[in-house]
From TrEMBL:
The keyword Transit peptide does not apply. It is found in: Cell envelope. This is Trifunctional nucleotide phosphoesterase protein YfkN. Keywords: Hydrolase, Metal-binding, Multifunctional enzyme, Nucleotide-binding, Signal. SUPFAM superfamilies: 5'-nucleotidase (syn. UDP-sugar hydrolase), C-terminal domain, Metallo-dependent phosphatases. One of its GO terms (biological process) is nucleotide catabolic process. Pfam families: 5_nucleotid_C, Metallophos. Residues 439-568 form the 5'-Nucleotidase C-terminal domain. CDD domains: MPP_CpdB_N. Gene3D superfamilies: 3.60.21.10, 5'-Nucleotidase, C-terminal domain. Its cofactor is a divalent metal cation. GO terms for molecular function: 2',3'-cyclic-nucleotide 2'-phosphodiesterase activity; 3'-nucleotidase activity; metal ion binding; nucleotide binding.
Amino acid sequence: MSFKLDRRSFLASTAGFIALHPFSVQAATNQVHLRLMETTDLHVHVFPYDYYADKERDTVGLARTASIVRDIRAEATNSILLDNGDFLQGNPMGDYIAYERGMKEGDEHPVITAMNAVGFDASTLGNHEFNYGLDFLMKSLAGANFPVVCANVSKEMGATPRDDKTLLPPYVIMDRTVTDGAGNSHQIKIGLIGFVPPQVMNWDRRHLEGNVQARDIVDTARAYVPEMKEKGADIIIALSHSGIGAANEVEGMENASVPLAAVEGIDAIMTGHNHLVFPSSAFADFAGVDADKGTIHGKPATMGGYWGSHMGLIDLMLERDGSGWRVVGHASEARPISKRNEDRSITALVESDQAVLDSVQADHDATLAYVRRAVGKTDAPLHSYFALVADDPSVQIVSIAQLWYVEQMLKGTEHEGLPILSAAAPFKAGGRGGPEYYTDVPVGDVAIKNVADLYLYPNTVRAVRVTGQQVKDWLERSAGMFNQVEAGKADQVLLNPSFPSYNFDVIDGVTYEIDLSEPSMFGPKGELENAGANRIKNLMFNGAPLDLAQEFVIATNNYRASGGGKFPGALGDTIILEAPDTNRDVIVRYIVEQGTISPKADANWKFTSLPGTSVLFDTGPKAADYAAEVPGVKIEAAGDGPDGFARFKIDL
């Protein structure tokens, strides 16, 4: 039994009546309809509010997602509500709690308060739960009125995962009473097991090294799922804060949900981390995945977007036989809280749940005061509309502040006197965030909200010591942002949609060109694809060709320096400085010291000239206000792009 459902077919109500899901209607004696609801990647988005833009936003917020929980529960005879991780960090409210208010024993984190108000049944950890350290994490989780599980992060490792002393319970088996189609009550044991990408050991090394260790997701599942069955779990649901990626299992996979779904004994899988929606056409060509039916290896799965944008739903028809319960039917969907109209406007499909808003109103107000605090001034606009196609002021101010800081930190060390470069990437550059997802700070006061807008994550400063060859290869890795183009051909697509903007590092302190007619040396995930490729041309240092044997220091962040993105020269073994300060704090200090900053792109990189060639790219509509000011490149409007974006053209 399987159903493909329109995402809103059963949300509509007339005169207070809400239609039951077909499983609830069709369930017979000894058959139970169980609905699994999922949020994922909330990133502290409780209010439908963009703190960076300081305005309401209809596309986000747990308060909005919560408002449809009642109706979604009403469509099913039995239901549970789950969260799939990445709830503690990700917007200024998270930073306000971590850096300003703090978490003392007995304090309650606002996102936990909101989740309690909604009535979650369980959660797992995401990788960003570790960003503020283990002490902050454990104090935050102490306020949860629901269990939080994670099977593959341990304080002490044993011979096998089952011998580990895990940081949190690896799983929970919930005893629930469910009602069958005839109205009879039954007992069922629902097993929930959680997983986080093992890459947390690199991404948050400063917090985790020496304190915990992380295991492979799939190996851990193979160890614990049989144990859960031994302890009586009738069905097992994997809370996988891991994306939907390759089907072939590889040790230590970050996006391991496809091979995880193949583990015997797992009945359904909640996914996340990708910040995407499943089922959807985004996964149409993935091996082992049926994007129409919403299954992975034939098992029901969902991914509820991010920031509360969707509620992921899995409907299970369970049948009781002599040996317990088994899944005899399933359906999956992801229900949105808003929709984008043809005229690019947004229509909210739900209103906020007032009880959820009220539960964290005081922290919301305190966060607004926190982000509106001025720290200096800028005499030029800071925007990221063209950060992926030209040297950019919003990236440059980050780079300058990092260099300024690292130069001070290396004084008196053995590394003093080495030339210092600085690598920075744009974080807000459209993409999945939509056509409004760009940095845009006008001339005038620069507040903390603006600094957070320039640098989204609470990374800490790192410095690595590399050779000139590694500098070049670092830039070759970054140049994978661009598709290869054919010289002499007009209007070719410039940007590779599978390449995330946060991996497009620009290195200041050198000048260089990117030859788009060459293939990329590296694939989107850092895999070597074309060893002989040579996109980086005319790489110069101090006006002379860069010496590939010379040593340099590159200022960057802990994510990149520890192997995030797999950049040559930044794989964790070249770190010479692990600074105690976040990149954001460094930017704030730099602006405070300068008083007024003058962020101007210096065009230290550009595309190699290709006569008769032009490329197209999409960015936010407000980019039109700045297109004529971009140095070293001619940018022209080229009409509308999809989903509210604007299209522009570059003549190479």
